[in-house]
């Protein structure tokens, strides 16, 4: 896992208190950008630096000075109002031959470096900058954002428009705002630039995390003297759309649950899944998948490890599961907005829920004591106020039923005794990896392909 910070304030404060000057930090930041440019761009090419008047602009100006001589560097300022650092950097840059231009000329540009706004973005962009971004974003030059693509704020929301980067270099610490759903189409590849201090020097235990491929912990079968009962009995409650529940049940089985049963009406049930009238013997249950308005009796299962999904988010019965530290709630944003209202935690629209997802997810996990897995392009797992994000999934997963498969994977882990948090983290990673391994076209993956891929992780 990589550590994510809400902002780099703590890093900046720590570095400055140790005696670093802002100019030293900027020198390191600029060097990180310059190194990437040298890897990606032939020398001699023309680079346009878009500069704001704050420290994000200062980083860009320092970078132009470093590359000047090997590349043709032009600075374009979106403001005449420069802070002292930016002015000092500009004075040096001009002396070494960097050009300052009064209009951004995109002809023959090989690369655009975005140093307009970083962590200091405090309001929506104005019309002039939005127009500039429209022109730049459709240009085929290499695009590199310094710290944040301009227009993306620290909460991961777009303030009117946003620079569409191929690469974003996060300065000093990886910031959580770079991993929102909307950020995924704006940041390009995100990497961290070390500003002269290791992460461990300033990161505290209160931070959030970005999951990595190596965090995937598959259910392992090490002992030989075992039987099906050793791997748990998973149950899925079926509803008005039983196919959805059957897909979840199949995913749970393939993910290693020893036995899988469904409760509810199902025609053409696959022979590997058992049909039951009640939840007797369940080690873990999934409920809500394809439920609709079907009747459910949860009295016997509300204290079990469980996945609470889909339509259950809108129904009164979900309240009876609280508090249950072994519960994994798996809403998509619309269901999340409904769930917040249903549990009396917040009465907000889907848009508001999306906008404030990080803090709402954190608070939800504190209030319910369970695990939240808020689905999206970059799903968020929240437990006990800590967030775990995953940016490894892809748009192949945007197909009806992929959430049902995810619920089934979580169920498979829960049945085998994994904690709710471990089940959610591993399930998100297994889901993403199965999609990543899929060999067909982006548009053709079905939930059944996704389930099949679980066999080969
Ligand atoms: N601190 C350090 O030690 C280090 C900092 N580093 C770098 O500095 C960056 C942070 O620098 P920063 O704090 O100066 O803010 P920054 O992002 O340049 O923007 C502020 C300017 O933007 C303006 N402005 C804001 N919103 C606007 C809008 N919508 N439309 C128009 N204008 C708007 C705002 O104007 P004002 O609100 O004052 O009118 C102000 O002039 C950080 O991301 C990283 O790159 C590291 O690399 C090295 C260590
Ligand atoms: N563009 C995307 N990038 C990454 N993951 C995605 C994307 N679109 C959907 N997903 C994932 O696919 C699943 C969709 O779940 P959901 O919306 O509940 O679908 P359904 O109810 O049809 O099964 C979630 O796990 C979500 O995170
Ligand atoms: K920027």
From TrEMBL:
K(+) binds at residues 56, 114, 150. Signal peptide: none annotated. Residues 211-457 form the YjeF C-terminal domain. GO terms for molecular function: kinase activity. The keyword Coiled coil does not apply. Binds 1 potassium ion per subunit. It comes from the Bacteria. Catalyzes the epimerization of the S- and R-forms of NAD(P)HX, a damaged form of NAD(P)H that is a result of enzymatic or heat-dependent hydration. This is a prerequisite for the S-specific NAD(P)H-hydrate dehydratase to allow the repair of both epimers of NAD(P)HX. This is NAD(P)H-hydrate epimerase. It comes from Basfia succiniciproducens. The gene is nnrE.
């Amino acid at each position: 896992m990589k550590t994510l910070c809400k902002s780099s304030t703590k890093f900046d404060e720590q570095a400055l208190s140790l005696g670093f000057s802002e100019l030293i930090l900027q020198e390191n930041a600029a060097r990180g950008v310059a190194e990437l440019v040298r890897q990606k761009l032939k020398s001699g090419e023309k680079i346009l630096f878009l500069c704001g008047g704050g420290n994000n602009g200062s980083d860009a100006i320092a970078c132009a000075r470093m590359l000047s001589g090997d590349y043709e560097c032009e600075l374009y300022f979106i403001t005449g109002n420069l802070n002292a650092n930016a002015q000092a950097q500009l004075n040096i840059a001009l002396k070494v031959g960097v050009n300052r231009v009064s209009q951004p000329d995109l002809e023959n540009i090989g690369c655009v470096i975005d140093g307009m706004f970083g962590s200091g973005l405090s309001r929506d962009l104005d019309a002039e900058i939005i127009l500039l971004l429209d022109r730049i974003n459709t240009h085929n030059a290499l695009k590199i954002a310094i710290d944040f693509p301009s227009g993306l704020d620290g909460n991961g929301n777009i303030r009117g428009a946003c620079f569409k980067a191929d690469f974003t270099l996060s300065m000093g610490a990886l910031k959580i705002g770079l991993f929102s759903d909307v950020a995924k189409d704006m940041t390009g590849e995100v990497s961290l630039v070390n500003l002269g201090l290791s992460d461990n020097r300033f990161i505290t235990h209160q931070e959030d995390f970005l999951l990595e491929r190596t965090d995937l912990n598959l259910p392992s079968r090490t002992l030989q003297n075992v039987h099906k009962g050793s791997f748990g009995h998973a149950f899925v409650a079926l509803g008005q759309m039983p196919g959805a529940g059957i897909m979840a049940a199949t995913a749970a089985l393939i993910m290693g649950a020893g036995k899988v049963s469904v409760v509810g009406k199902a025609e053409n049930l696959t022979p590997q899944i058992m049909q039951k009238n009640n939840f007797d013997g369940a080690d873990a249950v999934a409920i809500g998948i394809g439920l609709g308005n079907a009747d459910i009796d949860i009295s016997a299962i509300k204290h079990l490890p469980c996945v609470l999904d889909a339509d259950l988010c809108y129904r009164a019965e979900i309240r009876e599961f609280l508090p249950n530290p072994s519960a994994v709630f798996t809403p998509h944003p619309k269901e999340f907005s409904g769930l917040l209202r249903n549990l009396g935690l917040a009465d907000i629209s889907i848009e508001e829920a999306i906008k404030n997802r990080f803090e709402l997810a954190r608070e939800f996990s504190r209030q319910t004591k369970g695990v939240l897995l808020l689905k999206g392009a970059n799903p968020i797992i929240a437990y006990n106020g800590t967030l775990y994000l995953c940016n490894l999934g892809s748009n192949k997963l945007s197909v009806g039923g992929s959430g049902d498969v995810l619920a089934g994977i979580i169920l498979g882990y829960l049945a085998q005794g994994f904690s709710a948090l471990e089940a959610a983290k591993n399930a998100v990673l297994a889901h993403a990896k199965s999609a990543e391994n899929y060999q067909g076209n982006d548009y053709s993956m079905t939930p059944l392909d996704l389930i099949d891929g679980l066999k080969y992780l």
